[in-house]
Design brief:
binds nicotinamide-adenine-dinucleotide, 13 helices, 11 strands, binds glycine, seven-stranded mixed sheet, two-stranded antiparallel ribbon, alpha/beta
Length: about 375
């Protein structure tokens, strides 16, 4: 099993990556008390909750001989999809924890995609002012992005991720075997976030992705493990240097300001987050080339790799550039007047910049 460390002082943790990770992980080492609450959604719960529960019990048994220390293991399962990421869901978790009479040594375990990871982390950050949680990501996007770095949140009717906390997990257990059941479209959406790491910050990794796109789509375990490890190493480094996103961490939003506008205008329906980010990264590259920062050849390489990873690159035609620009203005990264964006000087050379409305409108129309 590969391991990537996130050595934040006093809150350090490891990300375990590889086939069979779920059936081999020593959960008991990280479970301080007797109470464990598994939070999941219908599909990952149906597919993997039994395996997870069996492994938690097995690891506990190996460690703890005394029957008095018996585990109290409970589960809560939400509907699949973004609709679960609400304050009401967090309230359901709190009610469950209250019913369990869970104290500060309870451990929450998130089994699912980014929605479940964000929701569980949010609840863990708030229950009794903060308790332990473990991330067991079951989508590629969650393995390479959302489960790492401690951003937790729920959505409000007024917008996505508007209420949240920085709260780091005790461990991330990324078992690549679970990706076999993931729909191909979700796999590609996760690959968009992998591509992001190369595109904004690592030209060598970008070239590796160009050479291994087909293997990744075929779920080749060696290629997949390498891509996840490399992505997590990059994200861990960024989080270590800028946990609270005052500088470098903003670069992880390459393509996201454009992408969020697409998702918001489509009411988060009919497009996956990773797909919107893929389209957004191409817009950011086109804008950069248009204002003379980068070459059109680099934009073409980005488009070609996106296609090789089965990702869209065109803006859905029903979305009008003026409406997209207006939506971008509402982004959390907007500063008074200008829109703050991640631009690039070419592959691997992203930076935080601003752009004029006219240039942004041109990028939306290309
Ligand atoms: P998701 O959690 O909705 O999962 C996608 C779908 O796949 C769901 O229907 C889920 O039930 C299903 N699924 C999960 N694992 C499966 C498996 N192994 N086999 C079959 N089906 C499976 O979506 P996502 O893309 O994982 O996460 C998106 C969320 O992540 C968004 O809410 C986004 O805001 C958040 N996010 C957070 C961060 C962060 O830093 N915290 C970063 C990026 C994205
Ligand atoms: N997904 C961006 C971040 O974690 O900062």
């Amino acid at each position: 099993m590969d391991k990537v460390s996130v050595p934040l002082a006093g809150r350090e943790y490891d990300i375990y990556i590889g086939p069979g990770a779920l059936q081999n992980f020593d959960f008991a080492r990280l479970i301080a008390g007797r109470d464990v609450l598994i939070v999941s959604s219908e599909t990952p719960a149906k597919l993997y909750a039994d395996v997870l529960i069996a492994q938690i019990k097995r690891s506990h048994k190996l460690r703890e001989q005394s029957a008095a220390q018996a585990l109290r293991l409970e589960s809560i399962v939400f509907a699949d999809g973004e609709s679960a990421k609400t304050l009401a869901s967090a309230g359901e978790i709190f009610a469950k924890l209250a019913h369990m009479q869970a104290s500060r040594d309870v451990t929450l375990v998130a089994l699912g995609g980014g929605v479940i990871g964000d929701l569980t982390g949010f609840a863990a950050a708030l229950w009794m002012r903060g308790v332990a949680f473990i991330q067991v990501p079951t989508t590629l996007l969650a393995m390479v992005d959302s489960s790492v770095g401690g951003k937790t949140a729920v959505n409000l009717p007024a917008g996505k991720n508007l209420v949240g906390a920085f709260w780091q997990p005790k461990a991330v257990v990324a078992d690549i075997d679970v990706l076999r059941t993931l729909p191909t479209r979700e796999l590609s959406a996760g690959l968009a976030e992998v591509l992001k790491y190369g595109a904004y910050g690592d030209a060598e990794f970008f070239a590796w992705l160009e050479a291994h796109a087909a293997k990744l789509l075929q779920l080749d375990p060696v290629a997949l493990t390498h891509a996840i490890v490399r992505s997590c190493q990059q994200k861990a480094g960024v989080v270590l240097r800028d946990e609270r996103e005052t500088g470098e961490r903003m670069l992880l939003n390459f393509g996201h300001t454009f992408g969020h506008a697409i998702e918001a205008l489509m009411d988060y329906k009919g497009i996956l987050h990773g797909e919107a980010v893929a389209i957004g990264m191409v817009r950011a590259a086109q804008l950069s080339a248009d204002i003379g920062l980068s070459s059109a050849a680099d934009t073409q390489r980005l488009i070609a790799l996106s296609h090789a990873l089965q990702l869209p690159t065109r803006v859905p035609p029903a979305l009008l550039p003026a409406a997209l620009l207006a939506t971008m203005r509402l982004d959390k990264k907007a500063i008074s007047g200008a829109i703050r964006l991640i631009l690039w000087r070419g592959i691997g050379a992203g930076f935080v910049g601003t752009a004029e409305d006219a240039a942004i409108l041109r990028a939306w129309t290309q």
